[in-house]
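[retry 2/3] pantothenate kinase: previous attempt timed out, resubmitting with same input.
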Amino acid sequence: MVWYIIPKATGGGAFKFADLFKEKLGILFDKEDEMCSLVGGVNFLLKTVPREAFTYLDGQKKFVEIDHNDLYPYLLVNIGSGVSMIKVDGDGKYERISGTSLGGGTFLGLGKLLTKCKSFDELLELSHHGNNRVIDMLVGDIYGGTDYSKIGLSSTAIASSFGKAISDGKELEDYQPEDVARSLLRMISNNIGQIAYLNALRFGLKRIFFGGFFIRGLEYTMDTISVAVHFWSRGEAKAMFLRHEGFLGALGAFTSYNDQSHNDLKPHHHTVQRAILNCSGHNFRHIPVTSNLNESETIECSINLV
Ligand SMILES: Nc1ncnc2c1ncn2[C@@H]1O[C@H](COP(=O)(O)OP(=O)(O)OP(=O)(O)O)[C@@H](O)[C@H]1O
Ligand SMILES: CC(C)(CO)[C@@H](O)C(=O)NCCC(=O)O
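[retry 2/3] pantothenate kinase: success.
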């Protein structure tokens, strides 16, 4: 019996590794466009999975009721190595309106250089124990401890990320890696939240969904992004997060098997004749799919969305 498996692949890696897979494993990818897959993944989740989207503010997670008839338009901010901002108007209807190269890769890359830590988890762990005020220059540092209330800035607002390092007379080694990691996480998350809001404003979008593997359900990251969106929108816009934020592209590629008919898909037990891979530029991540062969010579996949 001969088995032909055509894996769906999305992201830059679908292109970057296509020849390698063909040469070494004899496998051809079915390439799915990255942006299209991201949007497909989010739409699938929002329409199919209960309690998928939530807000996170002041340590409180609140699930958001999604009205399927009033879902669009929204802004999707996908934070991977870089950041893509996509205005979504419907199934398959979207436009990438902006992006920034200051993303998860910047956090991890700079973090490795500045703290010598080896992995994302290590860097995050460090950031949990740090205090950004040691390195960040606050409004109060500039204004002698007081707020600049006339323009809406409290004394504890960050005036300049890493600004204290200008005149502290310290070398990198004199700072605790925990504090450096904390400032870095705050700087990146804050910046993304601000750019996201400005783009939402450009197009009059009230809802902003944040996804990508950078978020990973991390409270400090989500809190910083939420505060940035809240601050810049003066409470008008809300940052929303997704429970399955790290698998958007792979899910979108998966749902595209059925000719984009997401509505026919249920989050449990799909019978498909193919497999999926989510390929970023430098690594592969399998969506948690279990598979076994059944008598009709198909691969039975079930996704566990918990
Ligand atoms: N265990 C981990 N190992 C590496 N990076 C991680 C890990 N957990 C979270 N991250 C963060 O996720 C980012 C990568 O996210 P993701 O895989 O969604 O994007 P990507 O596909 O590599 O990038 P892009 O969307 O720009 O192509 C990293 O830059 C890092 O900040
Ligand atoms: C290049 C991609 C789309 C690859 O996923 C992503 O890393 C990204 O959106 N980077 C930001 C590029 C920019 O808009 O400045």
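[retry 2/3] pantothenate kinase: Confidence is low (pLDDT under 50) at residues 260-279, 281-306.
[retry 2/3] clearing retry counter.
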